[in-house]
Amino acid sequence: MLTNDQLSQWDRENFFHPSTHLAQFARGEMDNRIVTGGSGVHIEDRDGNRLLDAFAGLYCVNVGYGRTEISDAIAKQAKELAYYHSYVGHGTEASITLSKMIIDRAPKNMSKVYYGLSGSDANETNIKLVWYYNNVLGRPEKKKIISRWRGYHGSGLMTGSLTGLELFHKKFDLPLTQVIHTDAPYYYRREDLSLSEEEFTRQCAENLDALIQKEGPDTVAAFIGEPVLGTGGLVPPPTGYWEAIQAVLKKYDILLIADEVVTGFGRLGTMFGSDHYGIEADIITSAKGLTSAYAPLSASIVSKKVWKVLEQGTDEFGAIGHGWTYSAHPICAAAGVANLKLIDSMGLVANAGEIGHYFKNAMTDALSGHPNVGDVRGEGLMLAVELVKDKDTRAFLDTSLLSGAKVATALLKRGVIARAMPQGDILGFAPPLCLTKGEADTIVGAMSEAVREVFDNA
After folding, report:
1. Is the pTM of this model over 0.85?
2. Domain positions in the chain
3. Four-point Cα dihedral 286, 165, 379, 338, nearest 10
4. Could you give the C-alpha distances from 114 to 27, 268, 285, 323, in angstroms and in order?
5. Chain-centroid distance, C-alpha 411
6. For the chain, how long is the longest CA-to-CA vector?
7. CA–CA separation, 157 vs 177, rounded Å?
8. Please, what sign has the CA dihedral across residues 35, 38, 43, 47?
């Protein structure tokens, strides 16, 4: 077996890590962690550490680590048929079965499933389908996409443009001109503190309406949003938000893409976030929880309304010109089938709701009195703790202090992994859906100690 030193050297010499300070990593100024195994909510590394992963990788390992039901299904499929494409009507038992399982679990207006490998490529697919849809309907000018500041929809050219976070635009010449952004539904950071949630919701809807009027309703094709903002700060929407937004979209015949890459398959305590908030999407994006990241797979779930127009388009213009080599890859599809069966048999959707409620209350009780904790928020097993300079004014901490990163480091010393979110001093928690009350207590205890270490000893 290779030594840790040899692996570490090769890592720094050869591996281009995503979302990483490349120069610091190459110079050895950043630690690298070589992960070797996992079980339940824990991972292990080559240094012998056992860590409670309170972010499920990147909010994706919904069933937890080490589930042999999925690894066995992957191995079985690899032995029988490791690969065949899904072009021109080809399928496998795994891909066909998974499609049926997804449609059975999705909101009732959904019709078909198209597969990719990541949430980013699924959203690229979705925008192409929206443009195709409007071309078939004779509306070639209806192409602009409205996203939201602080939204996250991927890091490609189009999807990075849809993302409303500066890090993913800076020095990449993004966003592209066909993407426009509207308000984040971020009630804690509202400018007017006198606004109730309902008033803030009305403001968001009115600002969206005004933006559509400014751009021209005949030029706006779709609105994309996460049911709960993820990478932008794990922000649940204010009361009535999705009802108000959908009313504006219907008024102007604008399609709605619900990006459920994070919220799909149980995280909010419902199978989809759309179920939780009464969202009637035209297209749903899913990925992460679809296989619990045991294999790379994404799905664009297309509504009956959109599918009817796609069929019409192929009758008029021939076969649809879109596809990936690995669409509906048999091994990934087999992982998806086994994963969805586990989500059902383990009762993980209900557990996410029950334990999520307990987790949020425990975190609130432990931290709400601290002068540097501005907000504890969440839905299901998506939870955030926002750190501030002053609780009363909500003043931001000096960014040069890297307070969020320091708290994450203090958590790591206590054996807990959380994510310091990329915009603001926000700690994100999105553990596997198999989390227990005892494990939630461990996270809360570690977080309480970490916050006090960073702020009370400063």
Report:
1. yes
2. 33-63+347-456, 69-345
3. 20
4. 42, 24, 10, 9
5. 22
6. 69
7. 11
8. negative
Nearest alpha-carbon partner for 275 in 257, 258, 290: 258
Q: How far apart are CA 409 and CA 46, in angstroms?
A: 19
d(C-alpha 277, C-alpha 256), whole Å: 14
Q: Residue 281 contacts by C-beta under 8 Å, 6 or more apart in sequence?
A: 107, 256, 257, 258, 274, 303
Q: How many CB atoms lie within 10 A of CB 37?
A: 12
What is the mean predicted confidence (pLDDT) over 411-427?
Answer: 96
Region 33-63+347-456: CATH code:
3.90.1150.10
Query: How confident is the model over 137-162, as pLDDT tens digits?
Result: 999 999 999 999 999 999 999 999 99
Q: Which of 57, 45, 50 is nearest to 18 (CA)?
A: 57
CA dihedral defined by 190, 193, 196, 197, rounded to 10 degrees?
20
- Starting at the edge strand found earlier in the chain, the sheet holding 144-148 runs 110-116, 298-303, 283-286, 255-259, 220-225, 144-148, 179-182
Task: Give the three-state DSSP class for 282.
Answer: coil
List Cβ neighbours of 375 (8 Å cut-off, separation of 6 or more).
188, 384, 385, 386, 388
- H-type helices in 38-136, by residue range? 56-59, 68-80, 93-105, 119-136
Torsion angle defined by CA atoms of residues 237, 243, 248 and 250, in that order, rounded to the nearest 10 degrees: 130
**Whether 107 contacts 117, CB under 8 Å:** no
**Both structure tokens of 327:** 């669409």
Quote the CA–CA distance of 268 and 352 in Å, as a whole number.
Answer: 6
Instruction: Specify whether the CB–CB gap between 66 and 37 falls below 8 A.
Output: yes
Domain 69-345 of CATH type 3.40.50.300: no
- The model's pLDDT over 28-79, given as tens digits with 9 standing for 90+, comes to 999 899 999 999 999 999 999 999 999 999 999 999 999 999 999 999 999 9
Instruction: Say which amino acid occupies 201.
Output: T
